[in-house]
Amino acid sequence: PPTTTTTNKISESEQLPNWEQYFQQNDDGDTYLHLACIAGQENIVGALIRVAGNPYALNIKNDYGQTPLHLAALSRQKTILRMLLLAGAEAHLRDSRGNTALHLACMSGDVQCVSALTVPFSSEEINEAQRHFGFSQNKQLSYAEIRNYDGEYCVHLATEAGNLQILGTLVRFGADINAREGKGGYTPLHIVIENNNEELFSFLLNDCKSKLDVETTTFGRLTAYQMACRMKRSKMYKILEKYGAEPLSPPESEYEESSDDDEFE
């Protein structure tokens, strides 16, 4: 009679290095770490960081281009955001819409998450991370000017939302208050004039006075003063003139062709 031989089959996951077994991706591209971030399971996140032993596993993207850091921002998990950053997660990575974790925190209006993504590490935090994880991030956080695929920096999202606390936090940690968004070249000052937001207008002119350039133009060559005139914001253009803005009449068309190639980078 034929003899039957049995072979011991080893599953693919069992052949992987120990840490990789815990970072396999499901049908949506999520790892256990992605799922733990969404659920706010701080203990599990900490355990997975210890198993990972290196930052690579912390930056795996799912099918939507989201890292665990993105999902922690979306689910407003400020403690987990800090844990991931201290362990070496990359804050500058973008999802499928070009958003970083900081973009998402600004969109949600969560001041604590924005702070978690921008405030420099304290020596106590670094020592605690070393004790918990066996390693910690050596580099300090640095604010990165990154546009999403709609051409928006984080300062534009905060300004559009009228969120003074978030805008103030971004400026404090290095955001360019004169940055132009990628579609119309609007700065935060142009946006607050368009939205008639007097609170943010006052913040920009008073708290950001040393950094603010009131003569920065849109891609259509409109200064803030000219935009205020065009939109008949008489109070605003009078204040701008007091702050040294040149009182120029607005051009006939907002969409005059620009010859500066670097405006569209």
Write the layout of secondary structure elements.
Elements: H1 18-21, H2 32-39, H3 42-52, H4 68-74, H5 78-86, H6 101-108, H7 111-118, H8 123-133, H9 154-160, H10 164-172, H11 188-194, H12 198-206, H13 224-230, H14 234-242
Write a structural description.
With 265 residues, the protein is mostly helical. It has two domains: 16-142, Ankyrin repeat-containing domain (Serine Threonine Protein Phosphatase 5, Tetratricopeptide repeat, Alpha Horseshoe); 146-254, Alpha Horseshoe (Serine Threonine Protein Phosphatase 5, Tetratricopeptide repeat), CATH 1.25.40. Helix content is 43%, strand content 0%. It is built from 14 helices and no strands. Helix 4 packs parallel to helix 6 (101-108) and helix 13 packs antiparallel against helix 14 (234-242). The longest helix has 11 residues, at 42-52. The radius of gyration is 24 Å and the shape is elongated. The N and C termini lie far apart (76 Å).
